[in-house]
């Protein structure tokens, strides 16, 4: 993954003439932004680790698995939010972890944590590096230094129980690597967030990730049956059964713990046979309220789509759900909805028919397969587009939340107002991409002229949006997690006493406070 | 509820001639057991609360809501396991809470907890009194006294959001009271454990209860969207959205906390419209392995029954799933399975057809509606039968677990062997009543001659069964919870470090250690 932008340089997306036209017409964006430094030009603060520190870390994992070289530190300097990328464009000295450590076993992870606790070194578990909430910032939290813990050597399919439909996957496997190992045996996990190509199994668990197939296969936390976690206080092996009444579910403390309570090394997950059949159908609704009510009907009746999502009027008008056609002539009127169905043939046919019945009854018009296939084709490409927009002088950022169905209209209005208030003249787009019987997510995309001091202006917009979310009954994050960026809202999210619980658990497991300081827990 | 047996005296079940014949033939049970004391005869240890203690409690909740009278203490003396009932048959002085306290608001609950922390009085939240794992034992845990906290005054439907399908229910509502309030508005919770008629919303949450409709409506913990909990350290209001990535899910610490971490006062729950249609179909399978594989196919394909359960050969032979016919001529050969479908007409038809297809393909034979309706008719009656068996000289007790599908055969064999080894000549029956994509529950019923010292003999059988469960990959409880009886296995269930986490959370919320001592946390 590029250090200063998303993903694979070979997949970078040129802006189409349509998009350039849209930027000029809607946002007044005309000139490119000043380019940032290249990897050769960028200056990092020197590593704060002493030779003795590095020797101790080498003693834990082997010399070849510790590096304080700038070339290794730079790609772990942080995540991929727009503020992250704006900071990377600075020609002043930038911060980065003081070293990268690559353990190869749970024993080595434990040894690294012991060295770091003794030497007062903070540890940031890196995952795939795709955080958009500051979860990977190299904060030292008052300690002497910080290392990036890269688990890429935890890359095995450790077990596949085909009777139970359970697989144990190493935490360092990326989405594609995990799916490839499972597909060789005829199985699939089915977790496809936009970060799929880079993010890891451990990261999905540590951030409560949710993928585009969540209607069919569930959120990542719902797929988790068991977890192994190495903490400074010892190892946990949680989750004995598909369901249990043996006290509190401690797995739920580590799902979403974002590296602050321990290092997840392996995850036991529900998997399913590779689907025999896949069916696509797109829909149009006259407006967002009608479309939202239709998705609610489908989900509350349990008709069983694998994917179901709805774009608002603005997203639909600019073809945002069909990456290749963004900014071109509107392909669909009203609000576009996409449905996809996977499974055995008879099941897919029955579920698609029940879903069609519900969507037709709710005022939908079928558009056939085309727009649904177009959505799937471009489903992982949006972050590349954001990078090109930034280079072209447009700030493009996203944020998301979830709430009960009854709260969604007020929530959407309040967030839209907060964003356009803080960024006058910006374009605010919204879609529903994850549905539950009692509510849904809302995902916002904001595009504005980059202008002067975009970091400060975006910061103000983000604060206004976060306040609006909490005020109108939403959660500060449905699937991006907390990191450093959402931490200011955690006290309101879970209350003072909730924060005290998290601190008490952390004090028990991480008494030296080395694990990802400055993230999640206020 | 009777103090020395299950439920309503008017519903007590006489043993049929068939059952008496079965007891004599299979177990050699012929003579009735010696009767225990009546409520007038039973002797309780005197209350240990001083007049000052009682005045302080009265100051918290009002004089009329505190009682140290034996008539109030006796019904809260404990739960309804067979060991509980055997202990109630003693003519020696019995233990009971030193008083019963009935707060009427969260402020009053907080005031009671403050009084108890100051005066070193333990607090046992009572729920509906249906624990079968010693969860209500009046243990003082080294403190001066113990009170039973009865939340029956928390009996309101506090909110119903018909758009989102969410209801907020007071923790003291019993199953029937909750369903009645919802049904008046056209809604249903759909949580029907065997304890349904007496157990409470707060108790369902605190024990991770699972009802007979779990295939359709989920376990109770899966229905929970939000919780209000009063702790000695303050009040928690958890659960903002249908799903969230805002850190660990703290609701999951209080679900299953069994009164050890706080007092649940209100629960926000997913509810659904009263079903328009209900369809029944019973099935026969040649053997338990074939039947289990059939249930697995149904659940892994997601064909959507509301109820699905399977009795083993022995349960089927004695008609255990059809309470009115127990012990009579076998009504079904092989293994009986029951399916029920609820919902809108088109949905029910589609789901029943897909389920039929899967069960037929897996070797099932349809028996039509009859046995499925007979199961539903008697679904809450089994505990009455146990009381009558006890009076007739037969020990009848149940235990349950869950595991991954692949582990079920070895788990079932090991538990059966443990029970019959400890109780030679006993009858061990088994069924699957809760299914998940990756595994299922196993529920065991043991019937044996009461004999000499049944408490000690059952204790040995229970220890052997619990050890077998943990050894073969099961959880110590799928839905009965932990209480005092399963506490010895908790360290093995969640590990030393898991226990340390629970203790750290408890120390933060309940520093005086007043909340349900001796339960759940080793």
Describe the structure in brief.
With 522 residues, chain A is of the alpha+beta class.
What keywords describe this structure?
homodimer, 522 residues, alpha+beta, GMP Synthetase, Chain A, domain 3, Uridine Diphospho-n-acetylenolpyruvylglucosamine Reductase, domain 3, 4 domains, 8-stranded antiparallel sheet, 5-stranded antiparallel sheet, FAD (chains A, B), FAD-linked_Oxase-like_C (chains A, B)
Q: What is the molecular shape of chain A?
A: globular
Radius of gyration of chain A: 23 Å
Q: Catalogue the unreliable spans of chain A.
A: none
Helix content of chain A: 25-40%
Supply the CATH class of the largest domain in chain A. Alpha Beta
Mean pLDDT across all residues of chain A, rounded? 96
Q: Quote the beta fraction of chain A.
A: 15-25%
Oligomer: homodimer
Q: Termini distance of chain A?
A: 30 Å
Number of helices of chain A: 18
Query: From the 3D coordinates, which CATH architecture of the largest domain in chain A would you assign?
Result: 2-Layer Sandwich
CATH topology label of the largest domain in chain A: GMP Synthetase, Chain A, domain 3
Largest sheet of chain A: 8 strands, antiparallel
Please give the most extensive interface between any two protein chains, plus how many residues each contributes.
A-B, 98 and 98 residues
Structural class of chain A: alpha+beta
